[in-house]
Specification:
The longest helix has 30 residues, at 316-345. Helix content is 35%, strand content 28%. It is built from eleven helices and 18 strands. Strand 5 and strand 6 form a beta hairpin. By secondary structure, the chain is of the alpha/beta class. The relative contact order is 0.16. It has three domains: 2-56 and 97-169 and 265-330, FAD/NAD(P)-binding domain (3-Layer(bba) Sandwich), CATH 3.50.50.60; 66-91 and 172-261, D-Amino Acid Oxidase, Chain A, domain 2 (2-Layer Sandwich); 339-396, no CATH class. Helix 1 (12-23) runs parallel beside helix 7 (291-311), helix 7 runs antiparallel to helix 8 (316-345) and helix 10 runs antiparallel to helix 11 (384-396). The protein starts with a strand and ends with a helix. Flavin-adenine dinucleotide is lined by residues 8-14, 31-34, 42-47, 89-90, 120-121, 153-155, 159, 178, 180, 220, 258-260, 277-279, 283, 288-291, 294.
């Protein structure tokens, strides 16, 4: 088996990379260890409407609900409303993630990429320390897949990255431990994604309610790893649901648990190797949203692979066009939001209440992130010292 690129993982990062690499003329194989793409779903299923502009998906089968915006609740219940455009990565649509992922895979296949399911990458294939492909197991069969480029799209704490010597394992302070119910028989007539903050509600994270329809929603929680202990996210989520008059009579039809990197990214390029998506930690450290970044980075990765194949150059320098490209697209935003996450972690609930109260009447469809930071500083000059590093980065984003 010999390909220009072998992509490990058929999540959105993998299939979008494969699609654009194949469209650019590369011979691509995607291997996926699961038996069905996108299933089981491990996601809140919120995405930004930016994906409309990119036109990467056909039709509307993948859309469950269209959102008007986000409502953020401080611990005392003060609400700040943001338009879908301003709210960031997760607000725009609530999707059927399994169909969404399968549609992206269909587009990759249409472009000429081959997809092999039930195929688990087990180690890198190397020759004198040079990466020349991957070893994999498919049922009882051992495979050696040769490729000029190995693309690690194998998700959080990427093994492909680790096998190449990149530290993809996460410090608990940079990892959100999450769980989620899909609840039916609840009232979700308002098309808003709701976020609940507070040290008691979700230490270092938040509770979300993402409506999939008028009587059904994903209700989940993320708690920062170093502030969590075994079973804590589920217990806090159960408490939140039983204390909420609308949710407490809901019936769960799905439960899931997973982890999200809320960390600074790792290096995403080496000789003959590229990492895309969660494997490169391209997730927004504030919201935990990663899907749109997978799509943006995957396109740049795929096009870079196409050019590398054309030139028959697979060294780090040639592939660095990808790293420069994704950093230009959203690298500064990730850096700023990581700093913002660290600053917010220090805030007590009463500070969050005070901040929410002071900005609750601002029209957020008219204000940029930089404008929001400025508004906070104007109202609370004592915040200036804490927020000063952000002012510089925000003005550039
Ligand atoms: C509870 C939860 C809620 C979330 N909610 C949202 C949200 O609302 N909005 C949002 O934007 N993001 C959300 N995220 C984050 C989002 O799901 C990820 O950012 C996104 O899935 C990353 O895509 P990916 O392709 O990089 O990795 P993944 O989607 O994780 O795909 C990796 C794929 O690689 C395969 N794989 C792994 N190892 C191997 C191997 N050795 N061989 C072969 N295949 C392998 C896996 O089976 C998997 O299919 C959430 C995450 C969690 C856990």
């Amino acid at each position: 088996m010999k390909y220009d690129a072998v992509v490990v993982g058929a999540g959105p990062a993998g299939t979008v990379t494969a699609r654009f690499a194949a469209e650019s003329g590369a011979k691509v194989l995607v291997i996926e260890r699961r038996q069905e793409i996108g299933s089981p779903v491990l996601c809140g299923e919120g995405v930004s409407r930016k994906i409309d502009e990119w036109g990467m998906l056909d039709g509307k089968r993948w859309i469950a609900n269209k959102m008007e915006g986000a409502r953020i609740y401080s611990p005392d219940g003060t609400m700040v409303k943001l338009s879908a455009e301003m709210a960031g990565n997760e607000t725009g649509y609530v999707v059927y993630r399994d169909i969404f992922d399968q549609e992206l895979a269909r587009k990759a296949s249409e472009a000429g990429a081959k997809i092999l399911m039930n195929t688990n990458a087990t180690e890198l294939l190397t020759e004198k320390d040079k990466i020349i492909g991957v070893k994999a197991k498919r049922y009882d069969e051992d495979l050696e897949i040769e490729a000029d480029i190995v693309v690690g799209c194998d998700g959080v704490e990427s093994k492909i990255g680790q096998w190449a010597g990149i530290e993809t394992r996460l410090d608990p302070k940079d990892l959100e431990t999450c769980c989620q119910y899909t609840l039916t028989n609840i009232d979700c007539k308002d098309a808003f994604c709701d976020f609940y903050l507070g040290k008691k509600i979700a230490p270092g994270g938040y509770v979300w309610i993402f409506p999939k329809g008028k009587d059904i929603a994903n209700v989940g929680i993320g708690v920062l790893g170093n502030l969590s202990e075994s079973g804590m996210p589920k217990k806090l989520l159960d408490d939140f649901i039983s204390n909420n008059p609308n949710l407490k009579n809901g019936n769960p039809i799905r439960f899931l648990a997973g982890a999200v990197p809320v960390a600074n990214p790792v290096e995403s390029v080496r000789d003959n190797l590229i990492l895309v998506g969660d494997s490169a930690r391209q997730v927004d450290p504030i919201t935990g949203g990663g899907i749109t970044h997978c799509l943006e980075a995957g396109k740049i990765a795929g096009e870079t692979i196409g050019k590398a194949v054309e030139q028959q150059q697979f060294d780090k320098e040639t592939l660095s066009v990808y790293e420069t490209g994704w950093k230009e697209a959203f690298g500064k935003k990730l850096k700023r939001n990581y700093m913002l996450k660290e600053i917010f972690l220090d805030f007590e609930d009463k500070t969050l209440n005070m901040l929410a109260d002071s900005i609750k009447d601002i029209k957020f469809d008219e204000i940029s992130t930089f404008g929001l930071v400025k508004a906070l500083v104007l109202k609370h000059p004592t915040l200036l010292m804490k927020l000063r590093p952000l002012m510089k980065i925000s003005s550039e984003v």
